[in-house]
Amino acid sequence: MNKNKEQLLNKRYKAEKRFRLYGQSAIFMALLFLTIFIFKIFSTGYSAFQKTWLIVPVTFDAELMMLEQNPSKEDLKDADYYDIALKSMADLDPNANEDQENELKRMVSYFFEREIKRELLNDPSLIGKTKDVYLTASDDLDQVFKGNYPRDLPEDQRRVTDYQLKIFDQLVELGKVESKFNLSFFTYPDSREAELAGIASSFMGSIFSILVCLMIAFPVAVLAAIYLEEFAPKNRFTDFIEVNINNLAAVPSIVFGLLGLGILLAVFQLPRSTPLVGGITLSLMTLPTIIIACRASLKAVPPSIREAALAMGASKMQTTMHHTVPLSMPGTLSGTIIGLAQALGETAPLILIGMVAFVNTIPGSPLDPAASLPVQIYIWAESAERGFVEKVSACIMVLLGFLIIMNLFAQIIRHKFEKKWS
Amino acid sequence: MNLILFIFIVLLGFTSYYFGRRKAYTIQSTNKRLTALPQFYGYYLAIWCAIPAFIIFSLWAIFEPTIVKLLILSDYSNQGYLDDELNLIYEKTKALSRGQFTGEITPFIEASAEKYLSLRSIAQSSKAVIVLSIIIASGAYAYKKISSNSRTREPVEKFLKVVLFTASLAAILTTVGIVFSLIFQTIDFFKVIPLFDFVFGTHWYPAKAFVRDSSEALDPTMYSDTFGAVPIFAGTFFIAFIAMCVAIPIGLMSGIYLAEYASVKVRQYAKPLIEILAGIPTVVYGFFAALTVGPFLKEIGNSMGLDVSAESALAAGGVMGIMIIPFISSLSDDVITSVPQSLRDGSYAMGATKSETIKKVIFPAALPGIVGSILLGVSRAIGETMIVVMASGLAANLTLNPLESTSTITAQIVVILIGDQAFGDPKTQAAFALGMSLFLVTLCLNIVALRVVKKYREKYE
Lengths: 422, 461
Description:
The complex is a heterodimer of chains A (422) and B (461).
Chain A: H1 2-45, E1 50-59, H2 73-78, H3 82-90, H4 98-105, H5 112-122, E2 130-136, H6 139-146, H7 162-173, E3 177-181, H8 184-187, H9 200-231, H10 236-248, H11 253-265, H12 275-300, H13 303-311, H14 316-344, H15 348-352, H16 373-381, H17 387-417
Antiparallel strand pairs in A: 1-2, 1-3
Chain B: H1 2-29, H2 38-74, H3 83-97, H4 107-147, H5 153-168, H6 170-192, H7 195-200, H8 214-217, H9 230-261, H10 264-279, H11 282-303, H12 313-337, H13 341-349, H14 354-383, H15 386-391, H16 409-417, H17 426-460
C-alpha cells in the first residue's frame, strides 16, 4: 500500500518534470529558430558588403578615343571610351582569339567603360599614358573570388568559362584582384546585373513611403484617439467605431493593397508605382495601431491631472490639449514608431499597387516610381542569378538594422520620457 | 496656381491669428473685460479666414476636372461614341493642349483642345476670385464678431471637437473603402462566373481566361472550369493548419512556461527575444523558407526516398508557424497571468503539483482566452502573403500531401495582380472576389476572437 503510494507520487513528480521540460524545450525551440535565422542571414549576406575589383592596365590612346590635340573638358566627356576599354581587356591575354576576347570583356561589368571614363575625367593628363584602373568584376567572378561558386561543376553548367577562370587565376596570382568595401551597394539604384545592383532606389522609396504614411496616419490617429478617449459619448456609434478599429488592426495586409488598387489607383487615378500611393495605403494600415497606442497612453494619464485642470477653470478642451495630450505623447510616439516599423517591413500591399516595377533611377520625390526595401528583397529573391542571393541577405540586414534602430528608439522614448504614476 | 493659392490661404490663416490676438489686446486696453483668452480671438479669426476658403478650394480642385471633361465631351454627345472612345478623345485633347500630342491632329480635337485651354483658364481665374471673396467675406464677418467682443472660445472649441470627430470617422471610412473596392469587382465577377462554380468548382486555372478584346469577355462558356476556387480554399486552410501545428504547441508551451515557471530574469530576456520573431518582416521569412527550409526538406526527403517538391506546403506552413509563435505565446501568457492567484492557491492547498494545477485548473480557466489567441493566429496564417508567394507553389493543386506544392488565396491574388492589370477582365475581378472571401473569413475570425477575449477579460476583472 505504502509502496503503491510512493510509486504514484514518483509518477506525479516525473510528470511534473516532464511538463517543465516541455515548456523549456518550447522556449528553446523558439530561440533556436531565431538564432538559425539570424545566423543564416548574416552568413550569406556579409560578403555582399565586399566587392571584387580587377586591376587592369588601361592605355589612354588619344587616337582610339577620337580625341583632338589639347581636348577641352567637354571633348573628354564626349570621347569614345568603348574601344580603349575593349582593348585593355583584350590585352590581358595577347594570344586571345575573337571569342576569347569576348569572354575577356565579360569578366567585368558593363560599367567598365564608365569607370575608365571617370578615371580620365579626374586626371586629364593621363592621355597617352597607361594606368592601372579598378574595374568592377562580373558577378560570377565576384562569387568565385568569395568562394561561393562551385568551380568543380562541368563547364557547360557554369556561367564562367574555363578560359575566364584561367585568366582570373593568373590575375589573382599577380595580385591584380582586390576586394574592397562595396560602396556602390548603397549608392547605386537597382540593376539587372548583380554586381551593379544597389539599394539606393528602394531605400529612397521606403523613406518617401514612410514619410507620407507618417504625415497622414499620425495626425489623423492622434485626433481620433483624443476624440474616442476624451470626448466620445458612450453610445452605439462610438462602439461601432471601436469595433471597426479593432477589426482593421487584424485585417490581412493584402486587403489594404486591394483597397489601394481599387480606390486610389482606379477611382482617384493617382500615379501607379509611386511612394505616394504606397504611403497612403500603409497609412490606412498603421492607423489602427497608432490609435490603439495613443488611447492606451491617454488612458494611463491619471484622472487627478484632469480634475486639477478643470478645478482651475480650464475648459474640457484646454484640459485635454494642454495637459492630457502632452503627458500622453511619449506613449503615443513610441506606438507610432512601432507602427511605422511594421509599415516599413510590409510588402504585399506595395506589390499590388505596382511598386514592384523595375526602377533603375533614384526617385527624387514621392511622385516618382520606386520600389521599397522589402519589395527589393522580393524582386532580388525571385531572380535566378547567384550573385543576388547575397544581395538579398545584405538588403535584409539593412532592413533589420532599421527595424532594430526604430524599436530601440521607441523603447528609449518610452523609458526616458514616460512619467510613472504611482 | 493651385499651390500658390494654397500657400496663400495657409499664410493668411497664420497672419489672421495675430490680427485677432492684437484686436483682443486693444479691446482689453479700453478696460473692457474679454470673454476669453486673447489667443482664442486669434484662433477664431484664423479659422473663419482659412477654413471656408479651404473647403471651397478643395471641393473645386476635386470637381474641376470632372466638370471640364463633361463640358468638353458634351460636344461629342449624340454622335454614337462608346465610353472608351470618349475617354480616348479626352486624353488626346489634354495631351494636345499640353503640347505633348504626337498622333494625327484632327480639327475636332484641335477645337476641343482650344476649348479645354480656355475652360481651364476661366476655371483658374474664377477659382481665385471666388476663394478670395470668400476669404474677405468670412474674415470680415469674424472680425466684426470679435470687435463686438462676442464669445470666441465656445465656437473655437466646437470646431475643434468637430475636427476630432471627423478624424475618428477615418476608421469607418477605411472599412467602407475596403468593402467598396472589393464589392463592385466581385459583383461583376459573379455576373460572368456563377457563384456555384466559384465556390464548388475544383479547377483553378486563371491563365486560361486570357481575354483579347472586350466582346470575348462576356462569353461565359469561355470560363467554364477556370475559376473553381476549391483548390485555393483547401490550400489556404491546409497551409494554415500546418502552421498552427507548429505554432500552437510551441507557442502555448512557451506562454505557459513564461507565465508559470520562468524566473523574473528568464522572463525578462526570453519574452522580448521571442517577440523579435513577430517583428521580422514576412518577406524575410519568405526568403528564408525558399532559400533554406525548402531545399533542406527536399534533401531530407530525397535521402528517405520521398519525392519532395522544393516548394512544398510543409516549408511554407512550417516557417509561417514560426512566425505565429510569438502571437500565441504572448497572448496566452497575458491570459494565464490574469487568472486569479486564489485559484492556484486553492489547487496547491489540495496537494496538486504545479503541472497538475496548470493542466486541471488554470488551463480550463484560461481556455476562452487561449482559444481567442489561437483564432487570431489562424486569421494571421490565412492572411499571410509573402511566405506563400515565395516559398510555396503558385499552381493550384488540390492535394492533402504536405510534400507537394499548393497555393493560397493571398498567393493567387498576388499572382493575378502583379504587373499591369485591366479592370473589367474576369481574371482581375477574380482576384477581387478572392480578396472579398479572404476579408469575410478573417473578419468573422477576428470578431469571434476579439469577443471571446473580451468576455474572458471581463470575467476576471
